[in-house]
Amino acid sequence: MADLAVVGAGTMGAGIAESAALAGLSAVMVDVQNAALARGQETIEKDLERRVRRGRLSEDQRDEVLGRISAATSLEACAGVQLVIEAIVENLEIKQKVFSDLEGIVPGDAVLATNTSSLSVARIASATEQPERVVGMHFFNPVPAMRLVEVVAGPATDPSSIHKAIEVTEQLGKTAIEVSDTPGFVVNRVARPFYLEALRLVEAGGDPEQVDAAIRGAGFRMGPLQLADLIGMDINLAVSESLYERSYYQPRFRPSPLQRFMVEAGLLGRKTGQGFYKYDGSSSAADEEELAQSATPGGVTVVGDSELARALGTEPNGEGLKILALEDETVLAGSGVEVGARRLTPDSPVVELVGDVDPEIRDRVEATVRAAGLTPAWTPDLPGGAALRTVAALANEAFFTLEERVASASDIDRAMQLGANYPKGPLAWADELGLARILRVLDALREMHGDSYSAAPLLRRRVAFGNN
Ligand code: NAI
Fold it and tell me: How high is the pLDDT of residue 177?
């Protein structure tokens, strides 16, 4: 008798079964298609092979892990297990049918979990007679590598079902955070602005590579547009649309027309060979060293009373083009200078540049930034710059999520670090940058772009009460 059953042997099901087997549990994978079971098995074998090559697993261990995974085409194979994790297609009716069938097969004290990312646990559970044993266990892709599981309590879920889900998550060596049954749970919801802000910056004329570079400057491992290409533009759009619809059209979640255009044009990212970037083997990324040598600094003067101005090297009586080095969230337009420079914090390696200047001047400005050991990234002249507005929008969503009691503050932060690989939790990050600064950026963006930037009441209250 297996310790647990996984229904659906696709990307997620195979990953969950592999994680269970790696942790010493036995798992039966059930799929309606034999071909899917074979593919799932193959994916698992490939991943285990990689672990052997890297010396993380011996060949004997690999065989033991594989020996703990069995396959079946009938749900009957779930009879007797204490936990079933469903990871089939994201379709409410099909999921409801599977849960109602499972109820007749699996003993009454066993827990039935769904890995759904966009449906409500309550609706799936409504097809059963014992909704108290239905719980959400939302894993992240690739499952063997991602340490987070969002454990979702529906309104009828019994605490003992939650406990079981948490216990198994911990047995898998992963971290469980408890979340309420709300659209996008925590990670998919709080991460929405990461993509949307970058898309809006490209819509405002930003260059995708530069926008990514600017946002990476905040400490993210990948730029949002690179990540959207990796995930697939279609999947990303589906998540945006689902959140937008399920929130009754919250302007904050409004999908980007550019995203939709790219899906319609088949520019889905890596899987179609082109998204924001091309994946034809040629590198489009400019060679940093070549760039550094392509222009010499000079002919520009850095002005402004900021740490950044000092880092770039101010020349009080310098001549030529003036770069205004800012350390706030204002826009450059109307300041009387041609180029603005700013960064998120004094230890940020990237300097965002704004201004519409000739290529030759651009080169000189970039050379000035590189000469200071920093990386330049040109972004549109909008409040906050790319990095700060991204972190501000993430923090704002985290404040909404906290206020709506979807999860605790520490769980929200942990979820974003483990489930989305963020360098910091957005709530702690906002505290570090200053809540008043975050609010100023949101208010400035709201003035320019409307309700997509309404600040969370909790954030506004904290600033009003001097909790900056
Ligand atoms: P997938 O398309 O790779 O796999 C789905 C599998 O379910 C297929 O092998 C299919 O044959 C099987 N299936 C369909 N109907 C079935 C039935 N009635 N009984 C047994 N097997 C059936 O899908 P993927 O990406 O693995 O997603 C599965 C679930 O996990 C979805 O609910 C999805 O929203 C969720 N999820 C997906 C993530 C991802 O990054 N792909 C991340 C987190 C959750």
Answer: 98
Catalytic residues: 117, 138, 150, 188
441-461 mean pLDDT: 95
Q: What is the tens place of the pLDDT at every residue in 248-272?
A: 999 999 999 999 999 999 999 999 9
pLDDT-derived band at 287 (thresholds 50, 70, 90) equals low
**What's the whole-number mean pLDDT along residues 210-229?**
97
Task: Indicate the top mutation candidate among 16, 31, 94, 227 to test ligand 1's pocket, ranked by most ligand atoms within 8 A of CB.
Answer: 31
The answer, yes or no, to whether residue 321 has pLDDT greater than 90, is no
Range of the structural domain that residue 335 is part of = 289-378
- Radius of gyration in angstroms for the set of CA atoms belonging to the chain, rounded to a whole number: 25
Residue pLDDT, tens place only, 162-185:
999 999 999 999 999 999 999 999
Q: Residues 353, 340: contact at Cβ < 8 Å?
A: yes
Best probe residue, ligand 1, of 88, 148, 186 (max atoms within 8 Å of C-beta): 88
Domain termination residue (choose one: 122, 151, 181): 181
Q: What is the mean pLDDT of residues 332-338?
A: 74
- Backbone φ and ψ of 73, nearest 5°: -105, 0
Residue 55's CATH number: 3.40.50.720
pLDDT interval class at 318 (50, 70, 90): low
Same domain for 168 and 270, yes or no, is no
Residue nearest to atom 25 of ligand 1 (CA): 11
Which residues does ligand 1 sit against, CB inside 6 Å? 7-13, 30-33, 36, 87-90, 94, 98, 115-117, 139, 141
Index of the ligand 1 atom closest to the CA of residue 97:
18
Residue 127 domain-assigned (yes or no): yes
- Ligand 1 centroid–CA 40 distance in Å is 11
C-beta atoms surrounding 323 within 10 Å: 27
DSSP assignment of 226-281, as one string?
HHHHHH-HHHHHHHHHHHHHHTTS-GGGPPPHHHHHHHHTT--BGGGTBSSSB-SS
Domain count, the chain: 3
CA of 90 to the centre of ligand 1 (A): 6
Please tell me whether residues 121 and 248 are part of one structural domain.
Answer: no
More confident residue, 324 or 336: 324
Is there a contact between 403 and 457 (Cβ–Cβ < 8 Å)? Answer: yes
DSSP, res 148: E
